[in-house]
Amino acid sequence: MSAVTAAPAQVGSDQRAVRRRPRRLAGRALLTWIAEHALLLALAVVFVSPVVFVVFTSVMHSNQALTGDLVPRSLELGNYVRIFSEAPLATWYGNTVLYAVLSTAFMLVASVPAGYALAKLRFRGSNVIFLAIVVAMLLPPQVTAVPVYVMWSELGLTGSLWPLILPNLLGDAFSVFLIRQFFLTIPTDFANAARMDGASEWGVLWRVMIPMARPGIAAAAIFLFFRSWNDYYGPLLYASENQAAWPVAYGLATYRGIHGTDWAGTMALTVVVLVPVVVVFFLAQKVFVEGIALSGVKG
């Protein structure tokens, strides 16, 4: 009789052990995954923590901001409403979009042909020109700030963003470098085949090379767009005396100086300034990463 009653108990014990085994395996797999990605998780915490801090502070009451409390006691969404009345955000955004979009478009017009010529055309002095471009990348803008400012002042363009936009018609050193590196990854046989079919160099560039180099060109465009959107030094130098020409980066710094300890409002304005950049990055993340990865394959 005892053997008969022991058999069902043994069966039940085996069934519970079988049910617990997948849980143990899942827990072991989770620990293994955490161990393998510990460094990436630590870096993610380091980079995400400031963003979380800014967002949390932006919805705090002014008396709670930058105290020992890390989580808001109540959501003060009125901070976002208030900054729209305290700062001319529409003007700042309009100036920033004008600055970033025109700079990027002008850069592409000049830098794409330059990168193609340095990558696929052989002519005397090409290596010297490429070396000059690399040197221009390493040259701090502060070195040439005074003579360049005097030049734009003589032309009557100070007090606006045009001294920052128009130079892109001559190309951007980093963009030319990046686009050239991407063009080098494209086999020359495609260009030679197009030439044999009677295409001119402009035809080869427009119909063959640019479609194949879209990731690299997009990466260069995104880089310059972000740099223009976040630029503070340039507007400080050329547009600081004209409030109607301020972009969001300079406007944010000015807002911080005027409102002093209003950290909740400052953080709310920071979030509003960051949102368009974050949206653009996530929409173009795939082509951006692809362009950066492939641009460094060949030198």
TrEMBL record:
PROSITE patterns: ABC_TM1. Keywords: Cell membrane, Membrane, Transmembrane, Transmembrane helix, Transport. This is Carbohydrate ABC transporter permease. InterPro entries: MetI-like (IPR000515), MetI-like_sf (IPR035906). One of its GO terms (cellular component) is plasma membrane. Residues 93-284 form the ABC transmembrane type-1 domain. It is found in: Cell membrane. It is a multi-pass membrane protein. Belongs to the binding-protein-dependent transport system permease family. GO terms for biological process: transmembrane transport. The chain crosses the membrane at residues 29-56, 97-116, 128-152, 164-183, 204-226, 263-284. PANTHER family: ABC TRANSPORTER PERMEASE PROTEIN MG189-RELATED, ABC TRANSPORTER PERMEASE PROTEIN MG189-RELATED-RELATED.
